[in-house]
Amino acid sequence: MPLGTHELAVSRSCCPNLSSSPERIWFIPEPNASVELDLGGGATILLRRHGNPEGPRILVSHGNGLASDMYYPFWSLLEDEFDLVVYDLRNHGRNPVGDIDGHNIPNMVDDHDRVLEAVAANFGEKPAIGLYHSVSALIALLSPALGANYQALVLIDPPITKAGRDYQEFEAAANRAAAMARRRADNIPTKIKMIEVLSVIPIYQRMVPGVYQLIADTTLRPNRSREGFTLRCPKEYEARIMEYACAFAVAVDLEAIECPIQVIGADPTIPYSYLPSLDLSAIARVNYDFIPDSTHFLQLEEPEECLAMMREFLGTIGAFDQG
Q1: Which tens digits make up the pLDDT trace of 198-242?
Q2: What is the dihedral angle through the alpha carbons of 248, 249, 255, 259, rounded to the nearest 10 degrees?
Q3: Using an 8 Å Cβ cutoff, are 152 and 260 in contact?
Q4: What is the largest CA-CA distance in the chain?
Q5: pLDDT for 85-133, tens place per residue?
Q6: ∠ CA 301-306-312 to the nearest 5 degrees?
Q7: Residue 115, by phi and psi: left (phi above 0), alpha (psi -120 to 50) or beta?
């Protein structure tokens, strides 16, 4: 059964902050093909191919603690035109949870490079565009063979920063986010309860209809030891990556990356509710823009506007001639 088929059964009285517009039910289709990539040590990544296999290829991944299926309101807009390979980071989403000792950014960078090799080996070689949000964008930027692997990168609000005051602000925010992750409940009694909580958290207020249910469907799994649900990416795993990100976010040198780069950021002029968004307009080789009044989840707030920005950029680099 496709993921995300549950009907949103939340009344306006229990969740008064839900959008007044009709709720949408998101249906994530079965992939055209899938491949399980063995990473060793019990860790695996499930690669799923969606969309148009004759179109330009785009690789899609997600932010820390989340899942790529959660972004379906955005990447569903690409299905008719693009050859999509969607995957979750280790210990996230549709992947099993392995040993926490292996849950770190250096291993994820190695995973990223192995994903690229597996995609070419199993789905055929063609130019690839990386479409990455948050920590998956950071992981791609840390790959030592980045320029040779991609035709282009489209990075949505990547967690990168500069030394000095910017880094200090980023580090403080990352530590707060890690502490918040560790305070999360280990057991969620029902998906409805999670939806109620999401409806009052500021960063989730601008999302398109139906996303609360989609978040519950894609980031929770049945709890094996008791009734209810637990996070697909355990809270300690999420917190660990948040703390690791501080050491790596300042190490990215966008000027040294060979392939074309587009960064679509959250609004850097408004108070942030997750991590500070860096204004990259001073870097000449980066096609940078931001969506006014958007948060870290801008793909789920303004999916059509994100798509329009991305399409304009891909047109300038000739991506539509590479299918």
Answers
A1: 999 888 989 999 999 999 999 999 998 788 999 999 999 999 999
A2: 80
A3: yes
A4: 54
A5: 999 999 999 999 999 999 999 999 999 999 999 999 999 999 999 999 9
A6: 165
A7: alpha
